[in-house]
Amino acid sequence: MNTLCRLMAPVLSFLSEEVSDYYQGKQKTCSVHLQDFVKPPLVSYYGLPEEEQPRVRKMWQCLKKVRGVVMKALEEQRKKKLVKSSLEASLVLQVNLTEEEKDKEEGQLLLDLLALEEKNNTHNTHNTGTYDYRLLQDYFVVSEVQLSQTQHSNHNHSSSSMEGEWMVYEECAWLRMKVKRAGGGKCERCWRYFEEVTPPSEDLCCRCRSAVVAQRQRQSQD
Ligand SMILES: [Zn+2]
Fold first, then answer.
1. Is the pLDDT of residue 158 over 50?
2. First-residue to last-residue Cα distance in the chain
3. Are the C-beta atoms of 177 and 167 separated by less than 8 Å?
4. Pseudo-torsion of CA 71, 76, 81, 86, nearest 10°?
5. Which of 9, 33, 48, 190 shows its CA 20 to 30 Å from the CA of 136?
6. Alpha helices in 80-100 (DSSP H)
7. CATH of 49-183 among 1.10.8.640, 3.30.2320.20, 3.40.1390.30, 1.10.3210.10
8. pLDDT average, residue stretch 28-42
């Protein structure tokens, strides 16, 4: 309650003051608005030791930066009417580690983050048996992501250049992107486009199908 009151104080100022009057009683020495704000608990990402946490934070900052350029690329394709929404897009990413030191480091941060995700299996693989970059699909809100590494150096650093269909942005010169229209059918539950080896049932992608099956199992147990 102590934590909750201090958290809600900026938005529910009178209510939080009244509630804290009641529960803190005589121990209340000052207004809830003068009390220290809650310190977030230290979270251990991916179960890694504390000394490795700054690098994990850097990985996420890098992903945030990548998201910025992906959004730009998607917007360009939306204007060209290749896709109407980002979920109609399939994204091909190519990380180039032959670039300058700073770029190389950023590229490596992204690859390391994806390796951690895959290892920790927080975004599980389905029947394909390969990791499908679920983190990137969800973070960019696209239907599919393919990622590869290239050793070809890429010297075109203009702010937004098209190399064939490849797009490169100055902020992330180490990343080449291609936006394609996602193939397959549209999942009725999550609206992602999916192509699967097994015949789809009820027009659901495998992620939604397993969620629906699990829900039905729970209901039948009740
Ligand atoms: Zn789905």
1. no
2. 33
3. yes
4. -10
5. 48
6. none
7. 3.30.2320.20
8. 85
Q: What's the gap in Å between 127 CA and the centre of ligand 1?
A: 14
- Å from CA of 149 to ligand 1 middle: 28
Q: How far is the CA of 142 from the centre of ligand 1 (A)?
A: 12
Question: Are the C-beta atoms of 117 and 156 separated by less than 8 Å?
Answer: no
Averaged over 111-140, what is the pLDDT?
76
Say what the pTM is.
0.74
Q: Separation of 90 CA from ligand 1 center, angstroms?
A: 15
pLDDT single digits (tens) 48-67: 998 999 999 999 999 999 99
Residue 66 CB partners (closer than 8 Å, separation 6+) = 110, 172, 175
Using CB atoms within 10 A of its CB, is residue 174 exposed (0-12), middle (13-18) or buried (19+)? buried
Intervals of CATH 3.30.2320.20 along the chain: 49-183
